[in-house]
Amino acid sequence: MSGKGKEKSETSGAETQSFETILSRLEEIVGKLSQGDLSLEESIKLFEEGMELSKKGHKILDEAESKIEVLLESGETKPYSPPSTEETE
Fold first, then answer.
1. Is the whole model's pTM more than 0.85, yes or no?
2. pLDDT digits (tens, 9 = 90+) for 16-56
């Protein structure tokens, strides 16, 4: 199986992944780690990927929450512009 190449291609476009894609990949990672048949190095690599995906997922959720708050405050729908994210990690 050439699953390793697939994993790299999935994470290379992680900046534009949807929340659903991120969640699906996180579930996949948890499943692999739960099996317990990975080497320590592979486990750490998957854990790191999972943490990065988790951060991106939280960012997406925070932006959605902000949008909902704006809509609830005004009682009307209007175009939403996310807050600028000048801080980079």
1. no
2. 689 999 999 999 999 999 998 999 999 999 999 999 999 99
Distance of CA 37 to the CA centre of its chain: 24
7-13 long-range CB contacts below 8 Å, 24 or more apart?
A: 7/49, 11/49, 11/52, 11/53
Return the domain boundaries, the chain: 18-74
Q: Are 4 and 38 in contact (CB under 8 A)?
A: no
Residue with tokens 């990690």: 89
1.10.30, 1.10.8, 1.10.3470, 1.10.287: CATH of 18-74 = 1.10.287
Structure tokens at 58: 């939280």
Nearest one of 60, 32, 61 to 47, comparing CA atoms:
32
